[in-house]
UniProtKB/TrEMBL annotation:
It holds the Pfam family CAP. This is SCP domain-containing protein. The lineage of its organism: Eukaryota, Viridiplantae, Streptophyta, Embryophyta, Tracheophyta. Residues 26-159 form the SCP domain. The keyword Zinc does not apply.
C-alpha cells in the first residue's frame, strides 16, 4: 500500500490512503502488539486477540459514548481497562501506553501502587493469566475518543501479584 500512497495521487486514492492510515492505528494487531510489548518486559505469555471480547468492548464503548463518555466500568466480570482522550483521537498504542506508564507507580515487592497513584490498568495489561484481549473504540459527542479493552480471564485478583 505504501507504494500506492506516494507522489502525484488522485483525490480518491488520497482519501483511501488517509482512511487506511487512520484505521490501521486501531487494528487488532495494534492493540495486541502494544499489550505484548509490556508483557514481554515481565516475561509473561503473550496475549491473543478475541473477537467476542472485542465486540463486548466496542458495544460498551458505544454505549458510553452516547451517554456522556464517563469513565465508568461496565461490571461485566471481565478484566477491563478504559481510556478517554479529551483532546482528540486516541490510537490503540496511545491508550495502552497510557496504561503501561502506570508501571512507574507499581511496586512489585509490595504488590501495591504508590500512595495516591493508580496502577491497576498496568497490572491488568501484564496479568499473567489474562491470555485474551479484545478492544473497541468510539467517538464521543465532544470529539474525544473512548477506548475499552476487555480481558479474559480478568486480572487484578486481590492479594495476587500480576506476574
Amino acid at each position: 500500500m505504501e507504494g500506492l500512497c506516494k507522489n502525484n495521487i488522485s483525490l480518491p486514492l488520497l482519501l483511501f490512503c488517509l482512511l487506511a492510515l487512520v484505521s490501521a492505528q486501531d487494528s487488532p494487531d495494534d492493540y495486541v502488539k502494544a499489550h505484548n510489548a509490556a508483557r514481554a518486559e515481565v516475561g509473561v505469555v503473550l496475549m491473543e486477540w478475541d473477537e467476542g471480547l472485542a465486540e463486548s468492548a466496542k458495544n460498551y464503548a458505544n454505549r458510553q459514548a452516547t451517554g456522556g463518555c464517563a469513565l465508568k466500568h461496565s461490571g461485566t466480570g471481565l478484566g477491563e481497562n478504559i481510556a478517554v482522550s479529551p483532546d482528540g483521537d486516541l490510537s490503540a498504542a496511545m491508550a495502552v501506553e497510557g496504561w503501561v506508564r502506570e508501571k512507574a507507580d507499581y511496586d512489585y515487592s509490595t504488590n501495591a501502587c504508590a500512595p495516591g497513584k493508580q496502577c491497576g490498568h498496568y497490572t491488568q495489561v501484564v496479568w499473567r493469566d489474562s491470555g485474551l484481549v479484545g478492544c473497541g473504540k468510539a467517538e464521543c459527542a465532544d470529539g474525544s475518543s473512548y477506548v475499552v479493552c476487555h480481558y479474559d480471564p480478568a486480572g487484578n485478583s486481590a492479594g495476587e501479584k500480576p506476574y
